[in-house]
Specification:
heterodimer; A: 354 residues; mainly alpha; B: 546 residues; mainly beta; 6% helix; globular
Chain lengths: 354, 546
């Protein structure tokens, strides 16, 4: 694309005849993929006519093609001295500078041409993380499944998050949020006693802060302290009665303790708050099955397998339905669901215990 | 389903008092027992190192006192290669038989009994007990990685290795075993679980930098073995013919019961890291594996279990045997309720095991009535497989205390076992060691001595202990269904993990001081005795005619 643009642009260029002759020789060499000849011809053109902008642009381009980014910088800079409004030169110079580690210097050139991905990378290097996240986000809107963009967005967001937390810990070490941040870190590291301590401190400082009880509940759930988990999840549902996640987690903790009836109520509530969540529907079906509401269980599970295909949750749901139908004496339906379960197992592997 | 889940306030307070009450057991030294379970862990993480620990509680000399047989592992060096040498000639690595004396102490009679050494190529695992020749003396079958050994009890305090004559060596890696009479011919047959296709040359180390034992899926599965007792002191391997060998397994625990009441004993196999197996006895010498269709194969979420130990008894007093399976952490011990009609329901959550066991790793297990209230309680010997699990997951632990959970009308609640020191426990064998009417436990611990958990008793509840003497049926009465005051037990010494339990059938009677006893013998003979006084050891002989 850049090449086509260059050819079109060069058509209108003038210079000394000797210089133009070398310029055209360089362009011929490019067609023959003789990159060293190409560089030599463009260089001669620039030496004969130091004001021949297109010779500098082409020389820079040739170095870029040769991955000699250091070599590309000087001719591209000279081209922009001669003509500051050359998008191609800005773009190539931006790339070359970035490749050579001069991220700050690359940024204005990349900004001029709106090269969002490269600009984002340069901004990560210069610590402009929020800007980088914005640029990757914008680029991703155009190429939503680009793996490089997805990586860089995740990477820059993570760095931004880390920076924010570092600042929080440095400036407000005794705040509830600082304790919460530390707790979350301990949780990820599976250091549950430390996570519990930090969450409790955060709750001591700001008992009304949404999310703290939910997260502390998950610490207890991870340690199989279901009674304590229930207390925390219940506290969260009181703080945030409209939080579907809190109701789901509370339902799960109740289910683990065999309190199927109470679990079912919470899971129904969660499902009303946020319908069609497969995990909620699955647990709802399980609680309903245990609590003697087979019709409710069947309805929830049938919805799960509408929403979920070829996943372990779908396999689990078919197994649940098979069990439900077997207990109801519906042999044919039980067999069908068991076959679906086994079919999925053969595709995705047997479900593993957590 | 008669399970009652609603309680009166008085009941509830009673439970709470019990849960918060005194320890159920006293941890007692086994006087005269100097055994150390030598599992010989090495940096090479040979998987066998983490698996041994058989315990048998049986009365080998018929003096009325339970004796203890302990299976040892062996010595493993880092240089271990096929053919393996486990140095079993060295007395430190012998299995041991300890005779109980009248004063409750024990005497090591291993050498005199002819049980010294155990074959240098054998690394010990488990033990089964049964009177396979119906001579009135219990025989021993020891499982190994290597070749298994059948010791015939000569009745004079000695045993003879009759493995070659009986043709029951199995080979490979055997773990648990049990005697039972699958064809009801009056002769005890033998079932042997085998774990995997493994040898020292094909060992693997897993966990990357953590350097851990590998999960079972890292090795090929294998088959279990069923030996039919010909009745002449020899056995034949009928695994193929009986369709046992049709299934590849990673089998550890085994337990027996007639779950569908058809008069033939069925087999439950605890498999590690896969679905569990329920072999239904077709009554014609063959079995059909039907766990999946019966609902006893997976969790309610359709997930496999790391099945290790198992018990096959009726926990909710509905007359039908239920299945318990002990597993690894992040799973929950599996409890499969027998609904009748050949159908099971996974009931771990409703029974309270979700809250009790999701961070526990269980091995030997039993459903026994430890408080004599008429409900079978749960005891599990616990410890993780990986000795460095704490480094990998800080919320888990290698050594653990046992789980004791009292059964309150079908719901289990944690109770104080009395054990405060965590052990790396494996086997758990159940029996009334001191004949006081209260069930005790002997636990094997890797790298350490066994532990005796002596039941404190004392609640005032009554009990009844029944010894069966089969005439047409096998002499041990294994496979009999015994009902006492609404409770049911299936006669067996198998179950748990690598262990053999006291064959006497123990019933707690609560406040009842008399009992109605009904026995359905494997021969089909029925027997009923009314108004039996409580608090006694009762021997029941099979009637010639029902």
């Amino acid at each position: 694309m850049i090449r086509l643009f260059l050819f079109a642009w060069l058509a209108g260029q003038t210079g000394t005849p000797d210089a133009v002759q070398h310029l055209h020789a360089g362009l011929e060499a490019r067609k023959q993929h003789q990159i060293d000849v190409e560089i030599a011809e463009f260089r001669k053109a620039t030496e004969i006519d130091p004001s021949l902008t297109d010779a500098f642009v082409n020389l820079g381009t040739a170095y870029m093609e040769k991955h000699d980014y250091g070599g590309a910088i000087a001719p591209l800079k000279r081209a922009l001295e001669l003509s500051s409004d050359l998008p191609v030169a800005h773009q190539l110079l931006g790339y070359a500078l970035l490749a050579q580690g001069y991220a700050a210097e690359a940024i204005p050139h990349l900004e001029k041409v709106g090269a969002k991905e490269a600009l984002g990378i340069a901004q990560i290097e210069t610590g402009q993380l929020a800007e980088a996240v914005n640029n990757f986000g914008a680029a991703l809107a155009e190429r939503p499944e680009d793996p490089d963009l997805l990586y860089y967005l995740g990477h820059s967001s993570g760095l931004l998050s880390k920076n924010a937390i570092d600042t929080l810990l440095a400036t407000h070490a005794d705040s509830a949020r600082a304790h919460q941040a530390l707790a979350e870190n301990y949780f990820v590291l599976r250091q549950m006693p430390q996570a519990e301590t930090e969450y409790k401190e955060a709750l001591h400082l700001r008992p009304e802060l949404p999310g703290l009880h939910l997260e502390l509940g998950q610490v207890y759930a991870n340690s199989a302290q279901w009674t304590k988990a229930e207390v925390e999840f219940r506290a969260e549902t009181k703080l945030q009665p409209g939080n579907a996640e809190a109701a789901y987690r509370l339902g799960g903790a109740l289910l683990q303790q065999g309190k199927a009836h109470d679990a079912l109520a919470e899971l129904k509530r969660s499902s009303e708050l946020k319908p069609d969540m497969p995990e909620t529907l699955y647990s709802l079906g399980k609680a309903a099955s245990l609590d003697g509401e087979p019709a409710t269980a069947e309805k929830a599970w049938l919805r799960v397998i509408e929403l979920e295909k070829n996943t372990s949750l779908a396999a689990q749901t078919h197994f649940g339905l098979a069990t439900l139908y077997r207990k109801q004496g519906k042999a044919a339906q039980a067999q069908h669901e068991m076959q679906e379960f086994q079919k999925l197992q053969s595709i995705i592997g047997p479900p593993r215990s957590e | 389903m008669p399970m009652v889940r609603r309680y009166t306030r008085r009941n509830f307070l009673g439970f709470a008092a019990m849960a918060a009450g005194a320890p159920v057991f006293d941890v007692k030294p086994l006087r005269g027992i100097d055994f150390i379970l030598q599992n010989s862990p090495t940096p090479r993480k040979f998987l066998i190192e983490t698996m041994p620990g058989g315990v048998a509680l049986f009365d080998y000399n018929n003096d009325g006192l339970l004796d203890i047989f302990l299976v040892n592992g062996g010595r493993i060096t880092e240089a271990l290669r096929v053919p393996e040498d486990f140095y079993r000639s060295d007395p430190r690595y012998w299995n041991r038989l300890y005779r109980q004396n009248r004063d409750g102490s024990f005497t090591d009679v291993t050498q005199a009994a002819g049980l010294a050494k155990a074959g240098n190529g054998n690394y010990g695992m488990g033990v089964a007990v049964g009177d396979y020749d119906n001579d009135g003396y219990p025989d021993l079958y020891v499982t190994n990685y290597g070749k298994n050994i059948l010791y015939h009890n000569n009745g004079d305090g000695t045993f003879t290795d009759v493995t070659a004559k009986a043709s029951v060596a199995a080979g490979g890696w055997s773990v648990s075993a049990g005697f039972f009479d699958y064809d009801n011919d009056g002769h005890l047959d033998l079932f042997v679980t085998r774990y995997m296709d493994w040898d020292a040359d094909h060992n693997k180390i897993c966990g990357g930098d953590w350097h851990t034992y590998c999960p079972p899926a890292a090795f090929p599965a294998t088959t279990c073995v069923l030996y039919r007792n010909r009745g002449d002191g020899t056995f034949e391997d009928v695994s193929e013919r009986a369709a046992i060998a049709a299934k590849k397994e990673r089998a550890l625990g085994v337990a027996f019961a007639d779950y569908d009441g058809d008069g033939f004993t069925d087999i439950f196999v605890a498999n590690d890291g896969m679905q569990q197996f329920l072999f239904h006895n077709n009554g014609d010498g063959t079995f059909k594996e039907c766990a999946l269709e019966s609902g006893a194969a997976l969790t309610a979420d359709g997930k496999g279990l790391s099945g290790m130990g198992t018990a096959f008894q009726d926990y909710d007093n509905d007359g039908r045997p239920d299945v318990l399976v002990t597993v690894l952490p992040r799973e929950i011990y599996g409890l499969y309720h027998n609904d009748g009609g050949g159908s099971f329901t996974y009931q771990s959550l409703e029974s309270g095991l979700g809250a009790l066991t999701s961070l526990s790793s269980g091995w030997g297990a039993g459903l026994e009535d430890f408080d004599n209230d008429g409900w079978k309680d749960l005891f599990v010997a616990q410890s993780h497989v990986l000795d460095n699990v704490k480094q990998i997951d800080a919320s888990l632990r290698y050594k653990d205390v046992p789980l004791l959970a009292l059964n309150h009308h079908g719901v289990f609640e944690r109770a104080d076992s009395g054990v405060s020191t965590p052990w790396a426990s494996r086997g758990a064998a159940f029996g009334d060691i001191n004949n006081d009417g209260w069930m005790d436990v002997v636990i094997s611990n890797l790298g350490g001595p066994p532990a005796l958990l002596l039941n404190r008793g004392g609640s005032g509840n009554h009990w009844l202990s029944i010894t069966l003497r089969g005439m047409r049926s096998n002499r041990d009465g294994y496979g009999a269904c015994v009902r006492v005051n609404g409770q049911t037990r299936f006669a067996t010494s198998a179950g748990s993990y690598v262990c053999a339990n006291d064959k006497r059938l123990h019933f707690g009677l609560g406040s009842a001081n008399r009992a109605k006893v009904e026995v359905l013998w494997p021969s089909g003979a029925k027997q009923a005795i009314h108004d039996v006084p409580a608090d006694q050891f009762l021997e029941l002989q099979e009637p010639e005619r029902s």
